[in-house]
Amino acid sequence: MTSLMSRRALFAAGGAALTVALAACSGNDPLADQANAGDNKNYIAGDGSVTEYGAADRKDPVAFKGVLFDGGTVDAADFVGKVTVLNFWYAACGPCRIEAPDLQALYTDFKSQDVEFLGVNVRDEKAAAEAFERNFGLSYPSVADKDGGVLLAMTKYVPPAAVPTTLVLDKLGRVCARILGVAEKGTLKALISSALTEK
């Protein structure tokens, strides 16, 4: 399980009540530990480790709703029937900058194959997020998740535990893979391709 970040960690203004409510879920989670330390570190850098979940080990389809930076809304139920890539990021995160061009390239490569990409921005105001998207030419949408709603919803399935984290959802909406840290292009491509071939 994981905990919502304090104001000085990933969420900057996450809200004390929600932080307290989530503290009980923390366990041995580096993202939660950093938040509790309150040391103003910009991100938890994952080691690039990949976890794949066999069909029998996957939990229920993920459920969340969010508001996009362009004002639209998103519901995880809308992605059922497609392979979905969820990428947790924010603009000042160095590793997020490293992987952004590859994420956009993969989005372009797969967008005609029933693959959806959705960013989940855990920290930024609209102006900072949109500047990042312009700088890196990102054309897939992102949820404004400064309050941690989407991140919190995901903790019951697979805790992100780092920023960036990239999750691949199968066609039923279940988490089938997780990458902690920078998503290497070849690795993520293979995970998406594998999910696409599942019946």
From TrEMBL:
GO terms for molecular function: antioxidant activity; isomerase activity; oxidoreductase activity. GO terms for cellular component: cell envelope. Signal peptide: none annotated. Keywords: Cytochrome c-type biogenesis, Disulfide bond, Isomerase, Redox-active center, Signal-anchor, Transmembrane. InterPro entries: AhpC/TSA, TAT_signal, Thioredoxin-like_sf, Thioredoxin_domain, Thioredoxin_ResA/DsbE_sf. It is found in: Cell envelope. GO terms for biological process: cytochrome complex assembly. The keyword Protein transport does not apply. PROSITE patterns: PROKAR_LIPOPROTEIN, TAT, THIOREDOXIN_2. It comes from the Bacteria. Gene3D superfamilies: Glutaredoxin (3.40.30.10). Pfam families: AhpC-TSA. PANTHER family: THIOL:DISULFIDE INTERCHANGE PROTEIN DSBE. This is Thiol-disulfide isomerase.
